[in-house]
Amino acid sequence: MRPWNFSAGPSALPLEVLQQAAAEMTDWHGCGMSVMEMSHRGKQFMQIAQEAQADLRELLAVPDDYSVMFMQGGATAENAILPLNLMGRGGALKADYVLSGIWSNKSHKEAQRYGDAAVAASSGAAAVIDGVTQDPWTWFPEPEQWRIRADAAYLHLCGNETIGGVEFATWPDMATLGVPNVPLVVDASSHFLSRPIDFSKAALVYAGAQKNAGPAGVTMVLARRDLIGHALPACPSAFDYANVDGANSMFNTPPTYAMYIAGLVFKWIKRQGGVAALEKANIAKSQALYAYLDGSDFYLARVHPKVRSRMNAPFFLRDESLNGEFLAQAESAGLMQLKGHKSVGGMRASIYNALPMEGVQALISFMQEFERRHG
Ligand SMILES: *Cc1c(COP(=O)(O)O)cnc(C)c1O
């Protein structure tokens, strides 16, 4: 059996997907070529790309007036591509950002290169919530308190802070917040396809593939079409949504192999019963893990329960001198890549779609046993 892989990204892919890719590696569907070796404009790859796009549309029920684009550069490049495409809309060169952890801070910093990127809200200070003091970046600011400028070209938030383990998934309705003309933009990189997306709330969603949807190298951008066509003159032509959308993600050579693998993941998700079925499994998996952490005096989860991520669970040993031993023994037990991000410390279990309940249970059993021996 393969070990359980808790990597935050690039992360575990479904074994079935890897096996199918292996079987098709040198000869895709009898055409005598690997997917890596075929023209992106040939009939074989056109079929792969069209199916991937159609499957993604179906899985997320993407409305017809949204474009589904496959781009390159990861979410980090998208942090620049986004303001380059949207900030000029309306002419104010303004955008507002909700800061909830490392990734949203990076997005905000990048946008400042292109215009007036302001902070609408931040969880970067400690806060008392329900009588409990929460550390910075372990809670989420209530939408009613966000300061959104009516002439902002968009409001940006990170749906799931991969490093801090903070997930904010009940996205607000911008009209209810009093700014119906400000589109909501979400970096959904690390919870993409783990739950449905409400497109009545989000005007643009982007996600690098390597957390939950495929290998590194392809970024999915789902954008309402009225947001396309406003790029600043400085926007590179390969990153202009109008060019990418206009050429159906074939403006230049797309990341063909990464798209092919992502397409296999989409088909795997369909076989699992779709995104709703995976959401159910993800709720069960994360609840099992957090319930165990909350019931233990040996471990500690610091994120406020209302915004705990279903995908990335940071946790701590109360006696941090045991960290090294914990990680070494976990690895011997076949539980890989549990070390927390250096900025947070402790441990982090990333339990994406491809990590089944069985893997979560293996982790909990190991943690119980470790606690029994050291507690
Ligand atoms: C991983 C991640 C990124 C950065 O992705 P790259 O592919 O390294 O550019 C950005 N945002 C979130 C939420 C992420 O999880």
Account of the protein in words:
This protein folds into two domains: about 260 residues, Aspartate Aminotransferase, domain 2 (3-Layer(aba) Sandwich); about 100 residues, Alpha-Beta Complex (Aspartate Aminotransferase, domain 1), CATH 3.90.1150. Helix content is about 30%, strand content about 20%. It is built from nine helices and 16 strands. The strands form five sheets. The chain has a seven-stranded mixed beta sheet with strand order 2-12-11-10-7-3-4, with helices on both faces. Strands 13-14-16 form a three-stranded antiparallel beta sheet, covered by helices on one side. The two termini are about 30 Å apart. Bound molecules: pyridoxal-5'-phosphate. Pyridoxal-5'-phosphate binds next to helix 3. Homodimer. Pathway: Amino-acid biosynthesis; L-serine biosynthesis; L-serine from 3-phospho-D-glycerate: step 2/3; Cofactor biosynthesis; pyridoxine 5'-phosphate biosynthesis; pyridoxine 5'-phosphate from D-erythrose 4-phosphate: step 3/5. Its EC number is 2.6.1.52. Keywords: Amino-acid biosynthesis, Aminotransferase, Cytoplasm, Pyridoxal phosphate, Pyridoxine biosynthesis, Serine biosynthesis, Transferase.
In short, what is this structure?
The chain is α/β, with parallel strands linked by helices.
Relevant terms:
375 residues; alpha/beta; Aspartate Aminotransferase, domain 2; Aspartate Aminotransferase, domain 1; seven-stranded mixed beta sheet; three-stranded antiparallel beta sheet; 9 helices; 32% helix; 18% strand; globular; binds pyridoxal-5'-phosphate
